Amino acid sequence: MNRKLAMAMAGCTALALTLTGCGDDTAERTEEWAAEFCDAAGGRLQQIQAANTALAEASESDEEPAVVQEVYSESYGQLSEAYAGLAEAVESAGDPPVDDGEQLREDAVAELNALSESYDGLRQASDELDTADRAAFAEGLREMVGQLEEFGQIGGDALTRLQSGELGEAMAEQEGCRVPGSPVDGDGDPDGVGSQGGEGDGSGNAENPEGSGDSGDSGDSGGSGDTDGSEGSEDADAAEEAGDPAEDAADEEETEG
Fold first, then answer.
1. Which residue ranges does the record annotate as region Disordered (predicted)?
2. Where are the domains positioned within the chain?
């Protein structure tokens, strides 16, 4: 029904995947921090992937608007809950053993909570969509894509730093941070797939999310990917290539006429 939104929402997976990082053995304190974080975060990362998969499937389905709306509302709620849970996981793990660790923790928690609040806003917006009018419903979806563009201003330096260097390497060694479909292979090295703006099927598949954000190919950043705020705008660029949901709805009305 709305491939445009599906492609944009594929970017939601990027943050979950890039938290897996990559690397080798690290110092004991770093490993302990990563272990505590990943033990708490693992379920949240899987929750994010599941929500994005549901959104992608609903966006490309031929279901009635009311059915799609229900999936969107539930999935956005799950994303909001998951990012809040990741914030709690960072808080619980304490200050990471890096320079300015206390400030890094506080900033990362703030960024994750901001993402949580943003997805809750999308949940509320989806609940208010007019499902009785397909054209109006499609227009509402298009406005949501515009909101997703703004999400690019939320993720910032703290999340990037949290996933970089030895911290990123240590997280890759933790089972809890190895979510299914991650670009991290068995050796903890990133395959380099799913890079921002790359070609994909828009399905939300973690192996190849269209415009999903750099979940690999990140050089020395520990596989951290692009969590510095650029994913929202580039996801929107990818979404523009997928067509206009309002125009799709109009075409349907002409056909029915």
1. 164-257
2. 3-256
Taking the C-alpha atoms of residue 219 and residue 181, their distance in angstroms, rounded to an integer, is: 20
Distance of CA 224 to the CA centre of its chain: 13
2 phi and psi angles, rounded to 5 deg: -145, 80
Residue 169: half-sphere exposure toward Cβ, Cα within 13 Å = 12
251 Cβ contact partners less than 8 Å away, ≥ 6 residues apart? none
Per-residue pLDDT averaged across 13-30, rounded? 56
Nearest to 10 by CA among 160, 171, 198: 198
Closest Cα to residue 210, out of 180, 239, 183, 181? 239
In terms of residues, how long is the chain? 257
Residues 91/111/232/216 CA torsion (nearest 10 deg): -40
Q: How many whole angstroms separate alpha carbon 187 and alpha carbon 185?
A: 5
Distance CA 130, CA 136 (A): 6
Structure tokens at 246: 């309002």
CA dist., res. 164 & res. 57, Å (int) = 32
Of 117, 84, 88, 85, which Cα lies nearest the Cα of 105? 88
pLDDT in tens, 197-210: 323 333 333 333 33
Band (pLDDT 50/70/90 cuts) for residue 78 is very high
